[in-house]
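pinned: reference chain
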Amino acid sequence: MRTIFSSEQIAQMEKNPCVFECRERSIHYTYEFKKRALDLYAQGVKPDEIWRQAGFDTSIWKKQYCGDTIKDWRRMVKKRGLESLTKPSGVQADGGYKRSKSPEADRVRRLELQVMYLEKENDFLAKLRAKRAESNSGRGKNTGSSES
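pinned: its structure tokens
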């Protein structure tokens, strides 16, 4: 049975820089992630661990999802080379998706997502610093002055 993603899961997945696009019934990874995953797998890293290192919660997929995905990518590369990782694979239940034109398009998309993530992280940290400064401003500081 195929995993169906909720709108919250889709939003969370699309924040990950390794995701090119996510829909209710499919997730499409960036060329860079696919290539890196294959490199790590060749070094002996288990497929589930590759996904976890990339920031994914692997419990949402069926047990063999990560391994089967790596197997598919390896087969594609063996048949048609690394360039085949930029093309969609399989029959999409939703009629297909926006195709990646090149590894460069994947890279641009990933960098855009990374910038959005970092901007949100900076906003969060700025709020945290402001809150910390606010809580510290009420305390009297020991200045260490001694009068004799």
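why pinned: The first strand starts at residue 19 and ends at 22. The chain has five helices and two strands.
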